[in-house]
Task: inverse folding
């Protein structure tokens, strides 16, 4: 019975890693679609989000079944409950990648990103992709060095979001309102993507160290309130 | 033992209602602070979000304790797991009300909402407040008529968000970039607030009817992709 439980827990872990791999690819491709006005790639990201949603449903059902059949306590219980929460965060990261792709699609054949913000969004895409790849690796290895890298990538995203605000206010390109709306939403989506990666990183850290210090529900929250 | 379990489940339900009451008041006051540039009220909403976060922590711990000590199955298990998820949604609604208040504070003593969008945001605030009040009442009574009202309020919020996009593009007031950024973020916050209320409504509906039809993880997601 215990072996079965362990195998099922392992499966939950593998499902989380697989979801994390999917959202890393999603945000990477969404960024390419955004920056190159690649309609087909944008559509692929949008369609692919259904797969991530399906993975969450399967994982959540597996967790609820585990709770019902195995009635875990202590560390095992914490593991299952935490997996349920992490799956919600990762699913949401998939949604945010989809939103980026939707804006790319909505502006096609134009690009949604003004020329003088191109580099900023390249960097946002790179930081978000790195956060998601580190998250997948953290879930796989539990190497907490990766958690620190995710926090650092999130700080980069927060700074870049602040840059987008400043640049929309000072751009000499004469940005139209549509561009300002798009840039504001895109910045928000990348920033939230990073927040969710941090939430997952803090939950894994808590599982590994047993120390809730520094992990409050702020892990869910906007870790960088750039519009404060 | 069973009586104790029932009492503890009742307490979880009361905690959820109390959280819902708090976020309803938070979004109502955030809207007033936003529309009247009331700094003290904005600060009160921002500070008050800590209380909502604390309530979530207490409620979540209660749920995990229940799982550990009572090992519920079937409907009782679903109830506890669903409560964990609903508390996350309601906590997030508190964050979004806080974000509205933060924008009000950031623009003080100016108002953040341009004159020709004042009515739109009054209506967003009213719809969001109504959704949250209906959510509290739904959690209290499980009257599914209230779930329908929440879905309707969310539809109103989605429509109003679309209005904000259209108005930022067509305003003859010559909106500056700061106003466009603020309006875009504010519209997003209210729209997401409605999404989370819908998520809770669908979870309660599922608990009452046992019918997952129409409830997928889309309940978590943006139900209205106005920027699609």
Result:
């Amino acid at each position: 019975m215990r072996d079965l439980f362990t195998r099922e827990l392992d499966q939950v872990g593998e499902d989380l890693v697989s979801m994390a791999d999917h959202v890393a690819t999603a945000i990477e491709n969404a960024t390419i679609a955004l920056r190159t006005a690649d309609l087909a790639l944008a559509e692929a990201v949008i369609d692919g989000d259904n797969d991530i949603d399906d993975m969450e449903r399967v994982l959540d059902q597996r967790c609820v079944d585990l709770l019902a059949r195995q009635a875990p306590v202590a560390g095992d219980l914490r593991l299952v409950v935490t997996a349920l929460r992490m799956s919600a965060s990762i699913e949401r990261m998939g949604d945010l990648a989809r939103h980026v792709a939707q804006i790319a699609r909505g502006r096609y054949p134009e690009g949604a990103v003004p020329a003088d913000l191109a580099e900023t969004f390249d960097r946002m895409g790179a930081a978000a992709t790195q956060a998601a790849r580190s998250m997948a690796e953290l879930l796989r290895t539990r190497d907490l060095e990766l958690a620190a890298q995710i926090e650092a990538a999130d700080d980069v995203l927060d700074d870049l979001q602040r840059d987008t605000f400043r640049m929309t206010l000072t751009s000499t390109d004469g940005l139209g309102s549509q561009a300002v709306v798009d840039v504001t939403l895109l910045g928000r989506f990348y920033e939230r993507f990073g927040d969710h990666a941090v939430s997952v990183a803090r939950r894994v850290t808590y599982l590994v160290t047993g120390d809730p210090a520094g992990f409050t529900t702020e892990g869910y929250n906007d870790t960088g309130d750039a519009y404060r």
Remarks:
- Chain A has one domain: 2-219.
